[in-house]
Amino acid sequence: MDHRLLEIVACPVCKGKLHFDKDNNELICKFDRLAYPIHDGIPVLLEPEARTLSADEVM
């Protein structure tokens, strides 16, 4: 994930900061507990495409 891109993308739901999860290749919104997938280096920032994080994953 390009560091510069990570600085400008935001959660489409709350407009908050997203964190890159290198292990799962996802962008994480801790506030909304959503994980957005990254396909071929392109973040898919669509709420229907996001998966809900469990309480253990948010920490």
UniProtKB/TrEMBL annotation:
Annotated GO CC locations: cytosol
Transmembrane segments: none
One Pfam family here: Trm112p
SUPFAM superfamilies with a match to the protein in the record: Trm112p-like (SSF158997)
InterPro entries the UniProt entry points to: Trm112-like (IPR005651)
Protein family (similarity comment): Belongs to the UPF0434 family.
Name used for this protein in its record: UPF0434 protein KY46_06150
Source organism: Photobacterium halotolerans
